[in-house]
Write a structure and sequence with these properties.
The longest helix is centred in the last third of the chain and has 19 residues. With 436 residues, the protein is mainly β. It has four domains: 55 residues, no CATH class; 116 residues, Immunoglobulin-like (Sandwich); 120 residues, Immunoglobulin-like, CATH 2.60.40.1290; 125 residues, Immunoglobulins (Immunoglobulin-like, Sandwich), CATH 2.60.40.10. The strands form six sheets. Strands 3, 4, 7, 9 and 10 form a five-stranded antiparallel sheet that branches. Strands 5, 6, 8, 11 and 12 form a five-stranded antiparallel sheet that branches. Helices cover 11% and strands 40% of the residues. It contains six helices and 25 strands. The chain is rod-shaped and about 235 Å long. This is DUF7507 domain-containing protein. InterPro entries: DUF11_rpt, DUF7507, Ig-like_fold. Pfam families: DUF7507.
């Protein structure tokens, strides 16, 4: 019985699927002639009951990721995926194929490989291969979906050409992933501004002139927002109500406020007398929406005060011809004469005075006949101050004086007893005769 030194099995032996050993024996007979040579073949393979050659083929793949973001990843950030492939069997595996639908299907040719220590393009049992894919750019759809789910598979062939059992791995990037966290912050901001429109360019605020309101709605988060609604009690309750209209901003026309978008709305409000009296218009608007990832609500409120042009100019009486007047007095009718004069002046001022912003001014006077200053008998003077006040309280005054004057001599037409007369003089009695 011959015993040989131990033989060390090589990977080539395992990959071949068998170790076939041919042995011969020969010698010489006593006469020196050769005996017939003897030989034997011994095969070690997977079916040998004494020494069984392992030939299992197995493969695993584990996917990992890193990103270039300093925090969570959002649209435009890049993710680098790596695939760690191990040979878990005893035979080498060739023709490794990596499939990843997210990255484009069969990506084997585009991957960067590390770990093929003998550079034979065969995954040996002693090797761990690490593939690195080209960077993947995160889309807004990824963020809106709330996760980036990536399925990868690896397969290959054993030395006998049969396929190894396919290996797969699923890698999910979401808000809970500690390595690469997907952003899912939702935020919205509303900025409302108002501009008064002086339509007739008279530097006054008038009823039914307008304020143009602009609403800027911005997504301050990293997920899209849908169901955008703006409410504004001033505009909603106006008569007529003022519609809030989207002007522009929905760039991709998907009815979602994306993180890259600012939506602009406009509305036109008609000014009321109450607004003019207040000299400003204050109101509050609120925007609401829903985050597309989970439907949660976001909201923002904005207040604005629009200053109106304040009327500080009183009514103008420069074109009025209400003058001092002298009227013949008429005894018991003097008060009526004075009252009529005063009323005529009020009418004249209402017609001749003007107001730059508002012709709805009122005219009042401090007329009182008891204020007559008598100069002679029932004649005299009375000075009246007229006050013109517009709707915003600006006022101007105008003063006029009425003089009631007696310029008419006594009427002698009814004196019939007064006649010329010739009388005989009587010397010393002439003076008495003339006096009588």
């Amino acid at each position: 019985v011959f015993t040989a030194d131990p033989y060390t099995v090589t990977q080539d032996d395992v990959n071949a699927g068998n170790i076939t050993n041919n042995v011969t024996a020969d010698g010489n007979k006593p006469d020196g002639s050769a005996v017939l040579q003897a030989s034997d073949t011994y095969v070690i393979d997977a079916t040998n009951p004494d020494v069984t050659l392992c030939n299992d083929g197995g493969i695993t793949i584990v996917k990992a990721a890193t990103s270039n973001a300093s925090g969570c990843v959002s649209e435009g950030d890049q993710i680098v995926y790596t695939f760690t492939v191990n040979n878990t069997g005893e035979v080498s595996i060739s023709d490794i194929v990596i499939m990843d639908d997210l990255l484009g299907g069969n990506i084997t040719a585009s991957l960067t490989l590390a770990g093929d220590t003998n550079a034979n393009n065969i995954l040996d049992p002693t090797e761990t291969w690490v593939f690195t894919a080209d960077p993947y750019t995160v889309t807004q759809d990824d963020v809106n979906a709330g996760n980036i789910t990536n399925n990868v598979t690896a397969d290959g062939n054993k030395p006998d050409g049969s396929a190894v059992l396919q290996a797969s791995d699923t890698y999910v990037i979401d808000a809970k992933n500690p390595d690469v966290t997907l952003c899912n912050d939702g935020g919205i901001n509303l900025v409302k501004t108002g501009v008064f429109n002086n339509e007739n360019a008279n530097n006054c605020t008038e009823i039914d002139e307008t304020i143009t309101y602009t609403f800027e709605v911005t997504n301050t988060g990293n997920v899209s927002i849908e169901n955008i609604i703006i409410t504004d009690s001033l505009l909603d309750n106006a008569t007529p109500s003022a519609a809030i209209i989207l002007i522009n901003g929905d760039v991709n026309q998907n009815n979602q406020l994306d993180p890259t978008e600012t939506w602009i709305y406009n509305a036109t409000y008609l000014i009321t007398q109450a607004d003019i009296d207040a000299t400003e218009v204050f109101n509050t608007a609120t925007v609401t929406g829903n985050i597309v990832v989970d439907g949660s609500n976001v909201t923002s409120t904005s207040e604005t005060t629009t200053e109106l042009i304040k009327d500080i100019t009183p009514p103008d009486t420069s074109n009025c011809e209400v003058l001092d007047e002298t009227i013949e007095c008429n005894g018991p009718d003097n008060e009526t004469i004075a009252t009529d004069w005063n009323n005529a002046n009020i009418t004249e001022l209402e017609n001749c005075a003007t107001d730059e912003c508002d012709n709805n001014f009122t005219v009042t006077s401090d007329f009182d006949f008891a204020n007559l200053i008598s100069t002679c008998g029932q004649g005299g003077t009375i000075t009246v101050t007229y006050t013109l006040t517009d709707a915003t309280g600006n006022s101007s005054t105008f003063t006029a004086t009425l003089t009631l004057e007696d310029t008419t001599p006594p009427d002698l037409t009814i004196c019939t007893e007064i006649v010329d007369e010739t009388m005989e003089c009587n010397g010393e009695d002439n003076e008495a005769i003339a006096t009588d």
